[in-house]
Amino acid sequence: MTDADIALRVEGLNTQIHVGSDWHDVVRDVSFSIRPRETLALVGESGCGKSMTALSVMGLLPPKVARIGAGRIVVDGIDLVAADEATRENMRGDRLGMIFQEPMTSLNPVLPIGFQVGEALMRHRGLSRRQARQKARELLELVRVPAAAERLDAYPHQFSGGMRQRVMIALALACSPKVLIADEPTTALDVTIQAQVLALIADLQEKEGLAVLLITHNLGVVASVADRVIVMYGGDVVESAPVGAFFARPTHPYSEALLAAMPRVDSDGGLEPIPGQVPTLTAMPKGCRFATRCALRTDACAELPPLAPVGGDPEHVARCWVRRDS
């Protein structure tokens, strides 16, 4: 694919966190691209690097304690890693939008909703306060907030969890971005509201041509909305595949373990928890980072395996010495 065919391209991303006196990789050599109207899901346990990948793309890494050590993040032909901060600020909220995990902590509690949604329009589109307020009302109607005109002057605490999430979507979409990053957008919602929010994102994606990077640990959500899946563990991509191929033939032992730990309505068997836990940043194995929890590990796992095609399919790759094609 050329840059003209994609909305977001990430190449060789390396993100580091400062712990003690050293920098440690929290995202290691991650590459992917997303086309318009495509949904790419990043999955894995907490601490596997999903949200750090998203914050790297958005340029929202906490200064002094986190940095991008290497790689490229390209949107509209602009490498955001090499760009200056002014350029990154202009891209955030304009060409890049993000829905954060918990809207109650992401929305300003002392500012009315209408102002918060309209602020990006004043900043990036040069609208007057009155014009931004009108556009904010239209956006709240777009995301199906009831009585939108009356709710413009309401505050976040006056909205339910589902309505706050809709406001976050309206805010993220205010300037018609090319890329929407949704970081666990349904985590704090009940299943009915989850379905409504996901359907809303899919509808807006089709209408607006959005490329969606969905970060989640919910494989049921992935199966229903994603086009492609990337599984991360310990900051590494361990498997990448079209969604159908991933569920039909999970190849990396960690992918298999994630699926085995997922509740299923078509099985009477119990859940199989993954033994152990994700290693800490200061104790990451040098080779395969899943090796300490893997029943299939061999001596070869002391060296990091490359991503290799599964069954000869270049679209389905996995990082495993044991499971690689012979």
Report the sheet-strand fraction: 15-25%
Adjacency order of strands in the biggest sheet:
6-7-8-3-9-10-12-11
Mean pLDDT: 89
Order of helices and strands: EEEHEEHEHHHHHEHEHEEHHEE
H/I helix tally: 11
Shape: globular
Poorly predicted spans: none
List the helices and strands and how they pair.
Elements: E1 8-19, E2 22-34, E3 39-43, H1 50-58, E4 66-75, E5 78-79, H2 85-91, E6 96-99, H3 103-106, H4 113-125, H5 129-142, H6 148-151, H7 161-173, E7 179-183, H8 191-208, E8 211-215, H9 219-225, E9 228-233, E10 236-242, H10 243-248, H11 253-260, E11 308-310, E12 313-318
Parallel strand pairs: 3-8, 3-9, 6-7, 7-8
Antiparallel strand pairs: 1-2, 1-4, 4-5, 9-10, 10-12, 11-12
Descriptive report:
It is built from 11 helices and 12 strands. By secondary structure, the chain is an alpha/beta fold. The strands form 2 sheets. It has an 8-stranded mixed beta sheet, with helices on both faces. A hairpin with a 2-residue loop joins strand 11 (308-310) and strand 12. Helix 4 runs parallel beside helix 7 (161-173), helix 5 packs across helix 7 (161-173) and helix 7 packs parallel to helix 8. It is globular, with a radius of gyration of 20 Å.
